[in-house]
Amino acid sequence: MHRFVFESCRLAIQLCVGYFPDGRARHRTFSLKGINPNATADDLAAVVRALAPLLAYPIESVRLVRKYALLPANRYNRPVMKRQSFPICEGLWMKYDIYLFDADDTLYDYDRAEEYALARTFACNGLAYSDEVRAKYRVINAGLWRQFERGEVAKSELVVLRFARLFGEIGVAGDPSAFNARYLVELGNGSFLIDGAYEVCKVLCEAGKKIYIVTNGVSLTQKTRVARSPIEPFISGLFVSEEVGFQKPQREYFDHVFANIPPVEKSKILIVGDSLTSDIQGGAGAGIDTCWFNGRGKENPGGIEPTYEITRLSEIASLGVA
Questions:
Q1: Any residues with CB less than 8 A from the CB of 97 and at least 6 apart, and which?
Q2: pLDDT value at 281 more than 60
Q3: In this predicted model, what pLDDT tens digit does every residue of 203-225 receive, in sequence order?
Q4: Percent of the chain that is helix, strand, coil (3-state, to 5)
Q5: In this structure, what is the dihedral angle of CA atoms 49, 50, 54, 60, given to the nearest 10 degrees?
Q6: How far apart are alpha carbons 241 and 88 in whole angstroms?
Q7: At residue 192, what are phi and psi to the nearest 5 degrees?
Q8: Can you give the pTM of this predicted structure?
Q9: What is the DSSP annotation of 159-176?
Q10: What residues act catalytically?
Q11: Are 11 and 32 in contact (CB under 8 A)?
């Protein structure tokens, strides 16, 4: 008569690290030894959730592997050692199929691009540039973009008005329209990525996920920036508000996006962005999960609650591990 004796157990984490030419997933498996045999599935899932942000690849499945001895009735025979594997929360990892990323200050380092573009444009126009000038510009620009989100100013008016007001404050005589045209070109040339942007886009793409950029930015700038950046091969599409005819957080903007991406349940779509009033409010209003990328550690003033909040883009691969 046979009997089973569990000798030990380990937690095996299976990671998807790419795909073979025929479409089959290529996996690597890592083991965590010394797991309590009496641990519940919830206990083990909690362990994996804590480790997920530290891993370079998205978790695809988690299994508990127990090694046991198959003992024969004849006590003089040596027992045969076998392994038995039990899935734990399999299928819950990386629950989203489509990721909608904001551009500025989410995938792209807007502060760095802005500094580069302002310095270049002022120099090309023979004008003095300083940190004080940039500070004044940022206040004016931020205020106008908030007005744009509320539908109080058109983008075509905004981009010129910001420099008209800046010239007035610093006492410069110039053509704000021509200045803005040069600035947008230089801004598009500044395709600097946020730390971790390339890695997370690569991981998601290799895992078979679709990535789209959803932005209220200027079309010329955003298209130039994407085309010049190393994440361009991972991007399935770009939705710019001025081409859509509506902007985030308007529901019509998101309806347009949904109509032009693969048809999936809304529960399979996640929007990631740094703006509570644009990305998070818009996503929530459209009925999809939201992820606030709070890389600067800002306080949430309340009223808009994201599904998730992260401080590093590398945390995205572990979202949805319910």
A1: 208, 209, 210, 262, 264, 268, 269
A2: yes
A3: 888 778 899 999 998 898 999 99
A4: 40, 25, 35
A5: -20
A6: 42
A7: -85, 135
A8: 0.69
A9: HHHHHHHHHHHHT----H
A10: 102
A11: yes
